[in-house]
Amino acid sequence: MTDTIPAVSSAPLQLAQAYFDAWNAHDGIAVVGTFAPAGTYLDPTLPGPIGGDHLAGYVGGLVAAFPDLRFALEDVAVDGDRVIGRWRMQGTNTGPLPGAPEPTGGTCDLPGVDVITVGEGGITSVVGYFDQKTFVEQLGLQALVVPADEPPMTWGYSVRTDLGNPTVPGALSMTWTDVGSDAEQEEVQIRSRQIVQEVAAEPGFIAWLGTASGRRMHTVTAWTSPEAAASAMARSAGHREAVARVRRDGLLPRGFTSIWVPHRLNQQQTDCPACGTKVWFDPGAAPRCDCGAELTVGSYL
Fold it and tell me: Is the pTM of this model over 0.90?
């Protein structure tokens, strides 16, 4: 495996070599310099072709996420004015990666192909092909597939704590916020993670659930009492800073917070691991199946 295209006099090959050299030099301006004035770049992570300053910024963002980024060439083929380069993208994610709350520290060795078309004045287009699912999974992330939005349904994702605490909630704190941009959504995710890490150590904390669908984000937190919720939020430095960002700096265009107390608690159910019988029991009980087996009480979020 090499970073170098075999030395020949073909102009398309020379431009392709300069293109890969610029990537491996982590020089976004040099990458753009290999393109014709109207040349464009496209890969599976982009909504459409980009060029010029947008392409230079894209290179800079990827290099920031992977400071040791390298494209190792495995094979090169030429067809007229077109060069097909088969490569492996290698690097370690120690910098900010869009869509992730923090660097994963994971390494990637991702196979891919660039189809490089050369015309008057330089490269007219690069179309990159690689498997996004493989990319994120190599970094220790999950690739989730959800249906397309179809009103009135908007799809998204959710995350919850799993502390195994079966305490019956005495209160639920509920929030929703509308984010105005991807940057705001990323900031809310980072701040939410900090707040949950702080309040999870509070004696009145039971469990937390967060969801996002479109531009709306929700949280539901189970507490032993309304007083426990209020006290924990008051002690959370992350929560105080987040509130200050909203009130002082105008973060988030819309939002709502509230605390609810139980109105009716229905029975919980679980399958007996010994005999398979479905057992119903009251909240807070220590259930046992008629067969004598002890049953596990599920947490409430």
Answer: no
